[in-house]
Design a protein that fits this description.
Largest sheet: none
Radius of gyration: 20 Å
Order of helices and strands: HHH
């Protein structure tokens, strides 16, 4: 079986489709920036409270870090945050995308 060394060329994309893709990428970037900012804020809060925390470069992974390594206070906070988010989504205050 012969492997192609060059990628297959795709048909040209119209400007409207490119704008749509760019808009979705910007939305994703905005979400990731807000998620990392939340992680940074939580890291500072928990560190000030005396808990061990993740490194600043891992601010996007704060939820996983708390679940895996967090102390009881952190896990309780995460459970309360999850419950509040679930209630908010259930009440249609936030429409999931």
């Amino acid at each position: 079986m012969r492997r192609e060394l060059l990628p297959q060329l795709h048909s040209p994309v119209c400007p409207a489709e490119l704008r749509e893709r760019l808009a979705r990428l910007r939305e994703t970037l905005d979400f990731l920036q807000r998620w990392a900012a939340a992680g940074a804020e939580l890291r500072c809060y928990f560190r000030a409270a005396g808990s061990a925390t993740w490194e600043p470069g891992d601010d996007l992974l704060w939820e996983r870090w708390i679940t895996t390594y967090g102390d009881e206070r952190m896990r309780q906070y995460l459970a309360e945050l999850d419950a509040e988010c679930a209630t908010t989504c259930t009440n249609d205050e936030i429409a999931p995308s």
